[in-house]
Amino acid sequence: MRTGSAQPPVRAAAAPRTGPVPHEPVAPRRVPGSWAERLAPFVLIAPTALVILALRLYPLLLGVNFSFTGDGERNGTAVGLDNYRELIGDPLFRTALSNVGLLVALLPIAVAIPGLLATFIYLRVPGHRLYRSVYFFPAVLSPVIIGAIFNLLLAFDGPLNAVLGGLGISPVDWLGDPDIAIFAVVGVHVWATFGMALVVFLAGFATLDPALLDAARVDGASLPRVIWHVIIPSLARTIQFVFVTTMIGMLTSMFGLLFVMTSGGPEGSTYLPEYYIWTQQGQMNRPALASAASTVLFVIMLVVGLLQVTLLQRAGKDD
């Protein structure tokens, strides 16, 4: 017979831990980089900065300073704003400035042409691979060769007027009429250089989200609406870049075509600032006046470029 209640078994007390107590992981404290790490980016960009400073900015400052000196008997002496006053009174320079205004007005067309062609290539129209090669081909040709070819094509008795004559249209003096010659030269320049802008646009299309185009197609948007509401806003920065580079090319890279096709004629109607600068420097031996014209051209490109970027940015925000 059991006289007492059963006692529960007694558990042995856990032995105390003698090792290190675990704790929550702590993020490593960021240690500031050494002075060499902080200096590394500046060291990497230093060669390029020095080249730009030595070959771009320093000559630019020298040219601006030289524009306030005289030519001929007053060579090296300060003349203030005399060179700029002479530029304002020179009919050829005023014609060159008016042609700059014409180029700026035609700039949207020069940008729209490669933009539309790049759009068609991106949408893979039939033969798009062939078109890509054909459109870029003129960009590798020398301006002298292009000018010589179009001198033959645009001659008064050339093939183009022969075609027009076959259609019952009177021949046009493309390079001899003062009201037409500048448009002919600009058209040739656009044809010869839009291949580079085409490549830039195609690179911009590589960043375009295809889902946006698919959504627009599902919604039944027409091609003009897709271009206006999808492609242009998505490529806003690419368009800004092409606008600025095309403008710079039109103002500073047409000398070869002008020299071969018109030599500034007829009656000075195709003068541009760069051709005027070459004439004053190379033929008239007036480097100070040429420096003043170069300074004016630089200011024009800077102002027009900033205005274009500002307008395009505002247009992008409005969209």
UniProtKB/TrEMBL annotation:
Residues 1-27 are annotated as: Disordered. It comes from the Bacteria. The chain crosses the membrane at residues 39-58, 100-123, 135-156, 180-208, 241-261, 288-312. Residues 92-308 form the ABC transmembrane type-1 domain. Pfam families: BPD_transp_1. InterPro entries: ABC_transporter_permease, MetI-like, MetI-like_sf. The keyword Cell membrane applies. One of its GO terms (cellular component) is plasma membrane. GO terms for biological process: transmembrane transport. Keywords: Cell membrane, Membrane, Sugar transport, Transmembrane, Transmembrane helix, Transport. It is found in: Cell membrane. Residues 1-21 have a biased composition (Low complexity). It is a multi-pass membrane protein. Belongs to the binding-protein-dependent transport system permease family. This is Multiple sugar transport system permease protein. The lineage of its organism: Bacteria, Bacillati, Actinomycetota, Actinomycetes, Micromonosporales.
